[in-house]
Amino acid sequence: MIGIVVVSHSAQLAAGLKALADQLGSPARLLLAAGVDDADHPIGTDAIAVMSAIEEADDGSGVLVLMDLGSALLSAETALELLPPELSARVRLCPAPLVEGTLAAVVAAGSGLTLDEVTAEALGALGPKQAMLPASAAQAATETAPVADDGWLRCEVVVDNPHGLHVRPAARLVAALKPFAAELKLQKGDKEANPRSLTRLAMLNVRQGDQLTLLARGEDATAALTCFQQLADERFGD
């Protein structure tokens, strides 16, 4: 499973981000390399701490590193130079936004995605916020939902969650649908998203009272739809 490392100048900032990520229930490893060991001047980054965090996060699958500010990148680059070549080769430094990117990466890694796929999820994590802003040019970031083809099964639910499908219930939906051997599409009105992607789900901007339709096709299609209905009945665990 891909490991995640957060490099931040502030230990408090990183700890708050980890507390937020822990709410998602992902099994992915999230390690912090934040602040420096100086009581009088605790703000900063330490390449040795970054190197140690990468080593701890790696299980052989790869590590994604997210950073807050410029010198955090310098510390991460120095850490890569200090690591054995076979380990540094499977480490990716990611320019995604720290908070959104980390949350998306944690969910994607916990779903068993590859390093390239986890990186793509993190890089796309700013899209939902951009799409929600009225003046954003990213309004069309979600695909227009086509008419369902023959062979697709469907399940329609109305979201009862008071705060809609925010990050925690969305993460639970992603994790719940992961095991099924089926092609899945989630529709809200004329928009469509991959329900196994936290970033894509967020771009649907699902609110209380919205109707969602899950389309499924494949060996586990019926089981996936049953799972989706049960999750909706339980307010997606929220």
Automatic annotation (TrEMBL):
Which ranges of the sequence are coiled-coil? none
* Keywords for the protein's UniProt record, in alphabetical order: Kinase, Transferase
Q: Residue span of the signal peptide, if any?
A: none
Q: Name one GO biological process term.
A: phosphoenolpyruvate-dependent sugar phosphotransferase system
Query: From the UniProt record, which GO molecular function terms apply?
Result: phosphoenolpyruvate-glycerone phosphotransferase activity
Q: Which GO terms describe its cellular component?
A: membrane
First-tier enzyme category under EC:
transferase
Q: Name one Pfam family in it.
A: EIIA-man
- The question of whether Translocase is a record keyword is answered with no
Keyword Kinase on entry: yes
E.C. number:
2.7.1.121
- Reactions that this protein is recorded to catalyse: dihydroxyacetone + phosphoenolpyruvate = dihydroxyacetone phosphate + pyruvate
Q: What does this protein do?
A: Component of the dihydroxyacetone kinase complex, which is responsible for the phosphoenolpyruvate (PEP)-dependent phosphorylation of dihydroxyacetone. DhaM serves as the phosphoryl donor. Is phosphorylated by phosphoenolpyruvate in an EI- and HPr-dependent reaction, and a phosphorelay system on histidine residues finally leads to phosphoryl transfer to DhaL and dihydroxyacetone.
Q: What do we know about how this protein assembles, alone or with others?
A: Homodimer. The dihydroxyacetone kinase complex is composed of a homodimer of DhaM, a homodimer of DhaK and the subunit DhaL.
Entries under PANTHER family matching the protein: PEP-DEPENDENT DIHYDROXYACETONE KINASE, PHOSPHORYL DONOR SUBUNIT DHAM
Name it: phosphoenolpyruvate--glycerone phosphotransferase
Biological source species: Aeromonas veronii
Q: The organism's lineage?
A: Bacteria, Pseudomonadati, Pseudomonadota, Gammaproteobacteria, Aeromonadales
